[in-house]
Structure formats: structure tokens, C-alpha cells
């Protein structure tokens, strides 16, 4: 089971606050994360729960970015207690049998379990320093660093390019003075 895909649910939730303004936006978020099933009933409770989870996950990423490993682990352990994992063997879409973290409960619970368990696995397998906040001002989006050399500092190529151009211009300005 590739839990990086589940951890990416946390990043998607953090980086998509505009999708949490209503049930239609929530449906779009779930579709983008591959978590929406046709006929699934979404409620205001799901929306409120995912808003709360988003705030918790922001703190996890900000704490990781600050280098406080113990605080990240404590927060993730708290979230794991609050969102217990219910693994199930699943087979669908012509795939072989594989593990899913949960198939029961309301949609927000399923999303939370996947996101939290995915982050916990990233932290235990790769390290807390793999959770980051984009270094390109003013962007504060979250990202997962799955690079082999732990070198990621930006949420996207766009932010990396923008930061590199800004640094180049700053060097040029200093050199011309």
C-alpha cells in the first residue's frame, strides 16, 4: 500500500481552503483527491470536520517546518487517536487485492484517516523533515518532500521559479549599486 498517496490528501486539504466554502466545493476537493464516490452523501458535518482537520494539519506542517520533531509526532499521535484506522482489503477497477485504510463512516472520517495515517507513515519512514511549507514568499502552501536527496523547498515549480527569479534580481540590484 502506497501511503504517500494518502499523505497527499493532507496537502490537498491544506492547500485548498477555497474548496471548504460549501458542499459543492467539498465535492470537488474529494473528487480531486480521488475520494468521492458517486451517490455519496455529503453533509455540513463533513464540511465542518474537514475544516477542523485542515487547521490541525496546518499546525503539523508548520511545526515540522520549524523543526520540532517531537511536537509533530505528538500531534500526529493525537490525530491517530481521534481518527482510528480501520484497514480493509479491497479490490476494484481491475486492480489486485490491496489495502484501504477505511471504507466505513462518513466521508470526512474516511478522508481524515487516510490523510493522518499517510502523514504518520511518511514521518516514520522518511522523517519529519519531509513535511514542509513553501519557502517562496508570500506562499505558505504545504508540500511533501519525496525527493531522494531531501532538497525540496517549494510547493510547485511555479513557486521555485518565482523565488529563483526574485533572488537573481536581488543579486543584480546589489551588483549594480
From TrEMBL:
Gene3D superfamilies tied to this protein: Jann2411-like domain
Domain of life according to the entry: Bacteria
Record's signal peptide: none
Domain named Zinc finger CGNR: residues: 130-172
Protein name listed in UniProt: RNA-binding Zn ribbon-like protein
Species of origin: Streptosporangium lutulentum
Amino acid at each position: 500500500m502506497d501511503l504517500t498517496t494518502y499523505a497527499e490528501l493532507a496537502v490537498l486539504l491544506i492547500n485548498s481552503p477555497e474548496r471548504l466554502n460549501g458542499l459543492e466545493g467539498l465535492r470537488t476537493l474529494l473528487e480531486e483527491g480521488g475520494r468521492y464516490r458517486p451517490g455519496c452523501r455529503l453533509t455540513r458535518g463533513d464540511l465542518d470536520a474537514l475544516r477542523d482537520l485542515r487547521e490541525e494539519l496546518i499546525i503539523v506542517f508548520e511545526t515540522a517546518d520549524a523543526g520540532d520533531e517531537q511536537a509533530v509526532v505528538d500531534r500526529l499521535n493525537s490525530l491517530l487517536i481521534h481518527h482510528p484506522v480501520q484497514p480493509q482489503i479491497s479490490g476494484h477497477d481491475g486492480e489486485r487485492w490491496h489495502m484501504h485504510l477505511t471504507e466505513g463512516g462518513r466521508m470526512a472520517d474516511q478522508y481524515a484517516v487516510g490523510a493522518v495515517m499517510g502523514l504518520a507513515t511518511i514521518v516514520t519512514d522518511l522523517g519529519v523533515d519531509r513535511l514542509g511549507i513553501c519557502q517562496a514568499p508570500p506562499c505558505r502552501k504545504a508540500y511533501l518532500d519525496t525527493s531522494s536527496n531531501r532538497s525540496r523547498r517549494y510547493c510547485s515549480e511555479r513557486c521555485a521559479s518565482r523565488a529563483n527569479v526574485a533572488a537573481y534580481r536581488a543579486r543584480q540590484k546589489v551588483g549594480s549599486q
